[in-house]
Structures are given as structure tokens and as C-alpha cells.
């Protein structure tokens, strides 16, 4: 049993396959009807209108309809395209058990617990016949597939066959049905439309199911007496043929298989049983653990069955349909109808060779599964699953393809897989880890132990095996007994090698893995629909089939559809555009396909641009998918040649930077948005002419004015002033006069706009005294005063960024796709040249001004034209007759191809490659590698305190130059220890902003703040040192030792100051206050600071009457020989008082006799001999529970993590 699909749901009571689509309806005990796609494994829809269980459901053969009947006494007809119930048929008085559409007439038959069977016309929506006669629940009723018969089964222990021939002869128009309602009622008990033909009695209990044979006059029934009975009928009578016994509980459903001579039944004993219909014996039983089975359904066209049970349903096949085949050279050997056949591709001839014995046992799936052929010895190995796996070795007759009488007896053996590994040697998988190599006499030559548990072996070249384990395949050499390759994959079902044995495709249920001959992974392809077969074509493309399509897979993993299939096919061989397939009936079918798409993509992938060009010229390659593919692969310029739609062409031209093509399309589209986008791209490319043209077309005068300003076209700027004046655009007028530097015009604009004070200020500042006086007179007393002590500076228009027209472009050779493809390219160039030479500015003045509403500008233009004409007037220049100019050859004609210089390696990249120091990686801007180095060397996990330092060090190792206004800022790396004598090709390490001397200054500042009692400030200084040290680089070994020493000094101060600050927070806990003061005295401090700490601890303990402890601090203080008299005096006094009463009022967690270190997180002593963990950076000690936490002293590293140690000098690496 091959399970194809399984669902988990409420109990399934009814099932129906769709005749064409891969759909199945399942009606549930909960009242829901589910529509599943069993091929994709997805729930498509659910219909939920019945109240209570739905026991019957059926698809219409051709209409988008299905019918359902439930325990709510209702029959509903649904349209699955509209996702709704069309109508409800009422009439039954009890639960409805089954419903079924007639294959031709618009009828539905229903069986009910009201002891009747009803036939309905679903077009007129009326009941046209009631079949009465059963005297218990009718469990099922169904039409005969061809004749005018209905079979029904009832709990009254009978099966009845009804003749509905009379009903068929009657008219079934809606009007007649209405007239017949009265007559139907009179016929209610014994109608003449349908008569009982036979009553089949023989079951001892209620009959649950009965069904017709699709072609023969047979009926099969199943009942609560646990028996399946076969009945035969003729025109006059019906009789029992045989009884099939084996079920151990009520038989729920039973039917004939449509395509095989077998009966399938299921039962509440949780089993499905398969019986031989001719021999009438049991073939096989499939049991479920916990689920009783209720319903069976067979696909009307395909070899599929479905069974519904307590917790869902399964769609399954009884036997594998893939024919066993093996391709060898120009032939394919395959098994069909118990014969071995050969098909020769070149002459397309099919020949029967020898009979293959039929399996002796009665179980299913025992036919040939795989073939292996040895061409030199003309021998075939046929493997099957018989007896747990066996093989037969057939030596084919040499003279002619045999007639059967001269065939040698086959040699047999057992084994999971068998295949030829050399011309006269074959390998057999005898157990999960042992392979035997045998000769043609079926004698073992040698045995090999496999390196892992294997369930199948495949051919992998002479002497090699591809061994399949559960989640991987390995390449095993039988001679050397070694593994050459290993690849992790999902469960591999088939293996297909390319002809040159360089590539292999591993086919799983839903994926394809392409690998090379050493099993190095190339690409993986996933499919939602099951993969069936595949073969390599001559180009190295893998062509494969799924249940529904022929597809291709390119070497880089790109795939696509070649053709849709109606029925599943198994590819055997590919010759050019012909694919030879085997179908499930064992027929060889040549399929001719169009390979243009995948050959085109392959040529593009392999950079065979000459082939691509010829294909574009000659092929009908089109479609959005191809354009999208070319865009995705970075060939928008190629996609241009496929596209007819101007908008798409425009987008592609912009993407590929082809400004001429974009201009052509923009002219045809002529929309504001497209002109704007063209202007943006032209500006990016520095094509001033097209920018100007695009701005003109969109009437974007502000942008146009600014464009003239940056290109220094002051003539056209002055025309823009006049256009702004005509358009009455005061702001634009003012801007343009500002760009030109025309002060008089600005004053006039301000005056006309009524801004007299501003006009007066502008005139007086720029020295236009006459105008200023006139304006002052107009303003009278309101004359604004100029600010005193300020010097006015003249606003001069900026010098243009680029005056010389378009930006210079590098001269490079034309791409393979430029020019050669498009015949119209030449004309396009001429068209563009014409457009570029035209003075687009003039075109603007005439074209745009004609459309202006506010006034007439013709006077402006006439004046300009007159000036132009009179330019040469006074010189009396005559026209000369000169010979026509010979075009000059360009200077670059000698080498039409300029190869741009290759960019060098950035300095920052050199720094990263040459260094293992985190500081130098940070300086190069590679923060992630710097972090990884610090994490590895010092166990640092928290980088937030280092963020600003990283940024400082990166910025500080570069300087920034500005070349000119339109160019971006240039960053220049600053090197450490640079000198003029150094070679320009050798890059030094980066200059760093942090150095050791800065840390020494910070240390002194920390000491000073500690002495002054500014503990928070001091803690800040010391932490800054700890955070900077990871980014310090020193030159000598001695300095490295000093840096390490500095870490220890600073760590002690940080710990001590943290404890002291904590102590000051604890006002109401005198015990903890004394402990923290005591621990502070055990930090390694400078002597003056130690004295202050001892004095502090002594005072705290004395106040708390802990005299003995206070006395120890007093003694330690005196041992330091304090320089301050008051310190010594106080210590001696406390010692004197304490000696009279050497007692402590409170016990402290403090033993000064036992050496200890203080935990940096919990501030408790860790005495010598106790377990502790340390910070890999600052080496602070912690109690074991702090393992894996962030160090509270340095706030950088993870406590207890592994680290290689501080690396701060190149000398450590050498």
C-alpha cells in the first residue's frame, strides 16, 4: 500500500474523487465537508451548512457540482466554484446514508434510514421516484455505471437490484414533473417507474454496502456478518457466487477495483483487505492501529483509492505504476506485462525479448522494481520486492531478440538491490552494511563491508556504488573500500548520472539535488508536487518530470516549466528537442518540446553571448517572465530587445543606463513623470542637453534655472528672467536675477512688489545711489537704517561646476548586445545627434512662450534676433568659397577601446589583512571583525561602552579632503610613523588616537580624585582606562608588560571604589558597612590611599563598638608609618582603648588572618582554597554562581569565558 496523502480530522463518513482534478471531498461526522487537493496536500475549501453528521457525498462527472446528504434529513447540492449551496432537497424522513449523481441523466439517488430510496431530478429540483421495499434502514444505493439499474443494501439482510428503465423512458422536463406529483403519490407504495429486479438473500446480518462491477454482471456486498459476498446476475436471475471470509468485525464498505481484477473492502476491525476477484482469495491486509474504517472510494480514471476512518482519511495506491527500465546507449530495456522489452530510439522499434516470471506469492507490489543492463554481456538484472527483496539474472540470446524457446533459465538470489558495477560483475546489497560482488554464474567473488547502515545501492560508475542511508548518500569505492564523497540529502529515490558521469541528480519525493561526481553539492531544487523522473540533455541541463509538468533545472539552480502533462510520464532519454518517456501503461512516447527558453538562459549563464544574440534575432522569446529573469540576472539591456511596451522599455532603458533608448520611449509616452525620471537619470550621467530638454518638457522652470546656473549658461538664465516676468512669477524672477547677479533687476522687482525698504537697502548696499535717493524720497521718514560696524559684501553668482557641456565619458568597446542586435540603433543615434545639436533652449523660448497666458513675449524674441543679425553687420565680412571639409579622424581612432584602470585595494582592507590587532580593525572601519577579535582575545561580550571609542578611532585614523563642489569628500587614510623616505607602495599601520601616555595622565587624574575623596569622578577615570586599553597599540614588549600591569592597578581601584560607594549608600545596615570598609583595605592601593582606607575602616568599626577589629586596622595603619600626625595619634588612641576590652559587639564576615580576594559582584570574601571564577580581561575574582554573567568591574567581558589574552602589540604576533 503506497500512501499518497493523509489527513487528520473528525470521523470521515463519505468520500468522493473528482474525475479530472486532483481533488477529494471528505464529509465528516461533525457536519463539515472538506475539499482537499491530495496532490499538493492542501485544504482548498470547507462547506459547513449541514446540522449533524454528513454520511454521503459525491462529485458530478462534468458540472462544477457536488451533492451531500446528512443526518438533518437534507440533501444539498453545492457549486464548488461559487463556494455555496445552490438548493436543498427535502423529502426523506430519517438519516440519509448515501447520495450519488447519475453519470448521464440529471438524477441523484439517495438511500435513507426511512427505509426508502429516492431518485431526484436536480434540474427541476423534485423527487421523481420513491423506491420502497426494504423493511429496515437502507445503508447504500448506487446507479449502475452503464445500465438502467440501481443496487441497494439494507439492514434487512438483503441486497436489492432495481430496474429503472421505465423511469428513463419517461420525460424528465420540469413541467411534466409537476403534473406527475399527484401520480407519484399514488405510486408511493409500489410505483411502476422502478421495480425490484432481484432480491439477493444470503447474509446473516444487516448488509452495509453493495456495489456493481464496472463492466461485468457482478455485485459485491459486505455485511455485519463479517463476510464479503460476490453475486452474479443475468437477465432473469441473480445468485451468490462465493463468500470471502477474513474480516473480524462488521464490513463497512466493499468495491471492485476499476483497473485491476481485485476487490477491496474495509471494516470496523480497523483493516483494509484486498481480495483476488478471480481466485477469490485474500491477497493482502493493511491494518491501522486505532481507527475503524467506514468508507472506501475509487478514482473513476486513475489507480487511486481513498479510505475514511475515525480520525481522517488516506488516499493510497495498491501497486506501484512506474515501469522498471534501464537505458543503455541507443536502447531502453523495460518490463511490460511480464515481458522484458527493448525499444531502440534511432529506428523507434519496440521488440519483445523474454518472459519474466510472475511472482509466486499472492501479495501485491511484487513486480519488477528496477533493471540493470550490461551491454557487453547482454545480461539483465531484474530486482523486485518479492520475498523481502530478490533479483533475477537473465542472459539475453545473442543472435536475435528471442523467441522465448532458447531463453536460458534465470539465476536468482535475494538482496535489497542488485546492479552491474562492471561488465561481468554485479553488486548485491545482502544486509544493511554488506555488499557482495558476484559474477555472471551468480557466484560470490568478494564481499565488502559498507561504512554505514544502507538501505539501497545505486550505480556510480565502474567499481563504485552510491549508497543511500536515511538522510545522506555516500560514494563508495568497492576496490579500495573507501568513501570518496558524502552528501546530506532527504531520502533519495532515484539517481540519474549525466552521460559524461561528471554530474549526478539525486531525486527525492519533493526535491532534486544536483552534485558533481565527488558528491560536492551544486544546487537544490524544491517542488511542491512529487518529482517522478529525470534525464540530462546534451547541453548539461537536467530535464525532469513531476506528476503534472516537464521542467528544466540549470546548473545554477534556476528552473522553469517546459510543458504540462495530462498523465505522469517517466523520462528515459533526451535527443535534442525530443524527450522519450515511458507512461504508466508501459508505452514509449516521444514528446517534442521547445527548448528555446532554457537554452537561452543557459547561454546567458555561460556567457555565450554570440548564441544569445542569434537567439534574440531568430526566436520568439517574449513574455514578462523572460523580461523579469533578464532584469534579475543583471541584463536589462538584453531585455530591451524583447519589449514592445514603451513604459517597460523606458524602465529597462533607465535601469541599464541607456539614455538614448529612454529618450526615445519618453518622447512616445510624453508624460510628466517619465520626463522627470529621465531628467534625474540624465543628471546622474552628466548629460546636460537631455536634462535641459526634460526640464523644458515638464515646464519645471525652477530646476531649469538652477541647471543653467550650475552649467554657467548665463544667456539662457537672462531669458528665464523674462519668461518668469511674462508668467508673472515674481519669486522665480527674483531668484533668476540673483543667480545672474543683476542688482538693478532685483531692486526693480522688489520695488514693483511693494517691498520699498528692501529695495532701498539693496540699492544703497550695492552703491546705486540715484535709485537709493529716489526710494528714500518715496519712503520719507520710514527709511531703514543700515546696521553699523558691519561691512557689506557683494553677492557674486558662483562659478559654474561644469561649463563644457556633457560630462566626459570613458571610451569602451560596445557590449555584445549594443548595435549588433537592433537594426534601428543606427537611425536612433542619428535622431539623437540631431536632437542634441539643436539648441533646446531656443526651442523652449518659442514653444513654451507661445503657450503663456500672462502677456506676450514676441517683442523679447524679436529684439534678440535683431541683435544677433547685427553682430557682424559693421565688419562687412564676405562669404568665401571654401572646399568642403574632410572629417577629421578622431585621436582615439587608433585604439577605439580605452581600458579603464583597475581600482587598487583600499588602505583599510590592507590594514585588516595585515593585522590581528582589534584597534587596527576598528581604525579600518571593520567593527565586526574588531569585535570578533576582542571577543576571542579578551572574552568581551558587551560592546556598548566601546561604541564611541570605535567611532573615535575610525574617524581619527582618516583625514578628509574636499576637491571641488560637485565631487564627494575624499577620505585619506593616516598612517602611523609615516616618513617621506617611505616607499609609496608599502602601507603602514593606521595612526591611532589613543596611546599609552594618555592613559598615564588619566591614571594620575584618578589618583588625585581618590585622594580628594571624589570617588565617583575617580571611578569614571579608572573605568575609562579599562575601556580604552583593548584599543591601545604599543611597540615594545616592555610596554606590553606595562599595559598588563596597568589593568591590574586600575581593576583594584575600580573594585575598591565600587565597594566604598556601595557602603555610602547603606545607611541602615551597620554590619555590611563595616564589612565593605574592611574589604576596601585589602585592595592593592597606593600607600596614601591605603592609609585613608584603613583610617576609614578603623573609624567605622570603632563607632560600632567592634573594638578588636578596629584595633587590627589601627595596627596596620601604624605599620605604614603614616606621615600625618593626626592619623598616627588617632590610631594609637584607638589601640589603647581597644586593649582594655578586646571584644567585637557584632560578628563580621571578615577574617584578616586568612588571605582572601573579594568577589567583584557580591562583595564577599573568597578565602584561599575556595573555588572562584575570573574575568578573562580584568582578572577580577567572582564566586562560581557568577559564571557566564557580565563582569561588574570592567563591564565588558563575560565571567569565566575562554580567551586567548590581550594582544596589543605587533611584537606579540611576530
From TrEMBL:
Keyword hit for Cytoplasm: yes
Domain COPA/B TPR: 624-766
GO molecular function, one term: structural molecule activity
Membrane topology term: Peripheral membrane protein
Keywords: Cytoplasm, Cytoplasmic vesicle, ER-Golgi transport, Golgi apparatus, Membrane, Protein transport, Repeat, Transport, WD repeat
Name under which the protein is recorded: Coatomer subunit alpha
CDD domains to which the protein is assigned, alphabetical: Coatomer_WDAD_alpha (cd22948), WD40 (cd00200)
Amino acid at each position: 500500500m503506497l500512501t499518497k496523502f493523509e489527513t487528520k480530522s473528525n470521523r470521515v463518513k463519505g468520500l468522493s474523487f473528482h474525475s479530472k482534478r486532483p481533488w477529494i471531498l471528505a464529509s465528516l461526522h461533525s457536519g463539515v465537508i472538506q475539499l482537499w487537493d491530495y496532490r499538493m496536500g492542501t485544504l482548498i475549501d470547507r462547506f459547513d451548512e449541514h446540522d449533524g453528521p454528513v454520511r454521503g457525498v459525491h462529485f458530478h462527472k462534468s458540472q462544477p457540482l457536488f451533492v451531500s446528504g446528512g443526518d438533518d434529513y437534507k440533501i444539498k447540492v453545492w457549486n464548488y466554484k461559487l463556494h455555496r449551496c445552490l438548493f436543498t432537497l427535502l423529502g426523506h424522513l430519517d438519516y440519509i446514508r448515501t447520495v450519488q449523481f447519475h453519470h448521464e441523466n440529471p438524477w441523484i439517488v439517495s438511500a435513507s434510514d426511512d427505509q426508502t430510496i429516492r431518485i431526484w431530478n436536480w434540474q427541476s429540483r423534485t423527487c421523481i421516484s420513491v423506491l420502497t421495499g426494504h423493511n429496515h434502514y437502507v445503508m447504500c444505493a448506487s446507479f449502475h455505471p452503464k445500465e438502467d439499474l440501481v443496487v441497494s443494501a439494507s439492514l434487512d439482510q438483503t441486497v436489492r437490484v432495481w430496474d429503472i428503465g421505465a423511469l428513463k423512458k419517461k420525460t424528465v422536463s420540469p413541467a411534466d414533473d409537476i403534473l406527475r406529483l399527484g401520480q407519484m403519490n399514488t405510486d408511493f407504495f409500489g410505483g411502476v417507474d422502478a421495480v425490484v429486479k432481484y432480491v439477493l438473500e444470503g447474509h446473516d446480518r444487516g448488509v452495509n454496502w453493495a456495489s456493481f462491477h464496472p463492466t461485468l454482471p457482478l455485485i459485491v456486498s459486505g455485511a455485519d456478518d463479517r463476510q464479503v459476498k460476490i453475486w452474479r446476475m443475468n437477465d432473469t436471475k441473480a445468485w451468490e457466487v462465493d463468500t470471502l471470509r477474513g474480516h473480524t468485525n462488521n464490513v463497512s464498505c466493499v468495491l471492485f477495483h476499476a483497473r485491476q481484477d481485485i476487490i477491496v473492502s474495509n471494516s470496523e476491525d480497523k483493516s483494509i483487505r484486498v481480495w483476488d476477484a478471480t481466485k477469490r482469495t485474500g491477497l493482502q491486509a493493511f491494518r491501522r492501529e486505532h481507527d475503524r474504517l467506514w468508507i472506501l472510494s475509487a478514482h473513476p480514471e486513475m489507480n487511486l483509492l481513498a479510505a475514511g476512518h475515525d480520525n481522517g482519511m488516506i488516499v493510497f495506491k495498491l501497486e506501484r505504476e512506474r515501469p522498471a527500465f534501464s537505458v543503455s546507449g541507443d536502447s531502453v530495456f523495460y518490463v511490460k506485462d511480464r515481458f522484458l522489452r527493448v525499444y531502440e530510439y534511432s529506428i523507434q522499434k519496440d521488440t519483445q525479448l523474454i518472459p519474466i516470471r510472475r511472482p509466486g506469492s499472492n501479495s501485491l507490489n511484487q513486480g519488477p522494481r528496477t533493471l540493470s543492463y550490461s551491454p557487453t554481456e547482454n545480461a539483465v538484472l531484474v530486482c523486485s520486492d518479492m520475498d523481502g527483496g530478490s533479483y533475477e539474472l537473465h542472459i539475453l540470446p545473442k543472435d536475435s531478440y528471442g523467441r522465448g524457446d532458447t531463453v536460458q533459465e534465470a539465476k536468482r538470489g535475494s538482496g535489497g538491490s542488485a546492479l552491474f558495477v562492471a561488465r561481468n560483475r554485479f553488486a548485491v546489497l545482502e544486509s544493511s552494511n554488506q555488499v557482495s560482488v558476484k559474477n555472471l554464474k551468480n557466484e560470490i567473488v568478494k564481499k565488502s563491508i559498507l561504512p554505514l547502515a544502507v538501505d539501497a545501492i545505486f550505480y556510480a560508475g565502474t567499481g563504485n556504488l552510491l549508497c543511500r542511508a536515511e538522510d545522506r548518500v555516500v560514494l563508495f569505492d568497492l576496490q579500495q573500500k573507501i568513501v570518496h564523497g558524502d552528501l546530506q540529502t532527504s531520502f533519495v529515490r532515484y539517481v540519474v548520472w549525466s552521460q559524461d558521469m561528471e554530474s549526478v541528480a539525486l531525486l527525492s519525493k519533493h526535491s532534486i539535488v544536483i552534485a558533481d561526481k565527488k558528491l560536492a553539492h551544486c544546487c537544490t531544487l524544491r517542488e511542491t508536487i512529487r518529482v517522478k523522473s529525470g534525464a540530462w540533455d546534451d547541453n548539461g541541463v537536467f530535464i525532469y518530470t513531476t506528476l503534472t509538468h516537464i521542467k528544466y533545472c540549470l546548473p545554477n539552480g534556476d528552473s522553469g516549466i517546459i510543458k504540462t502533462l495530462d498523465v505522469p510520464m517517466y523520462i528515459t532519454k533526451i535527443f535534442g528537442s525530443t524527450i522519450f518517456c515511458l507512461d504508466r501503461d508501459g508505452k514509449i512516447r516521444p514528446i517534442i518540446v521547445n527548448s528555446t527558453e532554457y537554452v537561452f538562459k543557459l547561454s546567458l549563464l555561460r556567457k555565450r553571448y554570440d548564441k544569445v544574440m542569434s537567439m534574440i534575432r531568430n526566436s520568439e522569446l517574449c513574455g514578462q517572465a523572460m523580461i523579469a529573469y533578464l532584469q534579475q540576472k543583471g541584463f536589462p539591456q538584453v531585455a530591451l530587445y524583447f519589449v514592445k511596451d514603451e513604459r517597460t522599455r523606458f524602465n529597462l532603458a533607465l535601469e541599464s543606463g541607456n539614455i538614448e533608448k529612454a529618450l526615445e520611449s519618453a518622447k512616445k509616452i510624453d508624460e510628466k513623470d517619465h520626463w522627470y525620471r529621465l531628467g534625474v537619470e540624465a543628471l546622474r550621467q552628466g548629460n546636460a542637453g537631455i536634462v535641459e530638454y526634460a526640464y523644458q518638457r515638464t515646464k519645471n522652470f525652477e530646476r531649469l534655472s538652477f541647471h543653467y546656473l550650475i552649467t554657467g549658461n548665463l544667456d539662457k538664465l537672462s531669458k528665464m528672467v523674462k519668461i518668469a516676468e511674462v508668467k508673472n512669477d515674481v519669486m522665480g524672477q527674483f531668484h533668476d536675477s540673483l543667480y545672474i547677479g543683476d542688482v538693478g533687476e532685483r531692486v526693480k522687482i522688489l520695488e514693483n512688489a511693494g517691498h520699498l525698504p528692501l529695495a532701498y537697502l539693496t540699492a544703497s548696499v550695492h552703491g546705486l545711489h540715484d535709485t537709493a535717493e529716489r526710494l528714500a524720497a518715496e519712503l520719507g521718514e520710514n527709511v531703514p537704517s543700515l546696521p553699523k560696524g558691519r561691512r557689506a559684501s557683494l553677492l557674486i553668482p558662483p562659478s559654474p561646476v561644469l561649463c563644457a557641456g556633457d560630462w566626459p565619458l570613458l571610451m569602451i568597446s560596445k557590449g555584445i548586445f549594443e548595435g549588433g542586435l537592433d537594426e534601428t540603433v543606427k537611425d536612433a543615434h542619428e535622431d539623437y545627434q540631431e536632437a542634441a545639436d539643436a539648441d533646446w533652449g531656443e526651442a523652449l523660448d518659442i514653444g513654451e512662450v507661445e503657450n503663456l497666458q500672462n502677456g506676450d513675449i514676441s517683442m523679447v524674441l524679436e529684439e534678440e534676433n535683431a541683435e544677433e543679425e547685427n553682430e557682424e553687420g559693421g565688419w562687412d565680412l564676405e562669404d568665401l568659397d571654401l572646399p568642403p571639409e574632410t572629417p577629421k579622424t578622431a585621436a582615439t581612432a587608433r585604439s577605439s577601446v580605452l581600458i579603464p584602470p583597475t581600482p587598487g585595494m583600499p588602505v583599510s582592507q590592507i590594514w585588516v589583512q595585515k593585522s590581528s590587532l582589534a584597534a587596527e580593525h576598528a581604525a579600518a572601519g571593520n567593527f565586526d571583525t574588531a569585535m570578533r577579535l576582542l571577543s576571542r582575545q579578551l572574552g568581551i561580550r558587551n560592546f556598548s561602552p566601546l561604541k564611541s571609542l570605535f567611532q573615535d578611532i575610525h574617524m581619527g585614523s582618516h583625514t578628509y579632503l574636499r576637491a571641488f563642489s560637485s565631487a564627494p569628500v575624499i577620505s585619506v587614510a593616516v598612517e602611523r610613523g609615516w616618513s617621506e623616505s617611505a616607499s609609496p607602495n608599502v602601507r603602514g599601520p593606521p595612526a591611532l588616537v589613543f596611546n599609552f601616555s594618555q592613559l598615564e595622565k588619566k591614571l594620575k587624574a584618578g589618583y588625585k580624585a581618590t585622594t580628594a575623596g571624589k570617588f565617583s569622578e575617580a571611578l569614571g577615570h579608572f573605568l575609562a582606562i579599562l575601556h580604552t586599553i583593548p584599543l591601545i597599540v604599543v611597540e615594545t614588549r616592555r610596554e606590553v608588560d606595562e599595559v598588563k600591569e596597568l589593568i591590574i592597578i586600575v581593576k583594584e581601584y575600580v573594585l575598591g571604589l565600587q565597594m566604598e560607594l556601595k557602603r555610602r549608600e547603606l545607611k541602615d545596615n551597620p554590619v555590611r558597612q563595616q564589612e565593605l570598609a574592611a574589604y576596601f583595605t585589602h585592595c592593592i592601593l597606593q600607600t596614601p590611599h591605603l592609609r585613608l582606607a584603613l583610617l576609614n575602616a578603623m573609624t567605622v568599626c570603632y563607632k560600632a563598638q567592634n573594638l578588636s577589629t578596629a584595633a587590627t586596622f589601627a595596627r596596620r595603619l601604624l605599620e605604614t608609618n603614616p606621615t600625618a600626625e593626626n592619623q598616627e595619634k588617632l590610631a594609637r588612641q584607638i589601640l589603647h582603648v581597644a586593649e582594655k576590652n578586646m571584644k567585637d559587639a557584632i560578628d563580621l564576615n571578615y577574617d584578616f588572618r586568612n588571605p582572601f580576594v573579594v568577589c567583584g559582584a557580591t562583595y564577599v570574601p573568597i578565602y584561599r582554597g575556595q573555588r572562584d571564577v575570573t574575568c578573562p580581561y580584568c582578572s577580577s575574582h567572582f564566586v562560581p554562581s557568577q559564571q557566564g554573567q557580565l563582569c561588574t568591574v570592567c563591564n565588558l567581558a563575560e565571567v569565566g569565558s575562554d580567551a586567548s589574552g590581550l594582544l596589543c602589540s605587533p611584537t606579540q604576533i611576530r
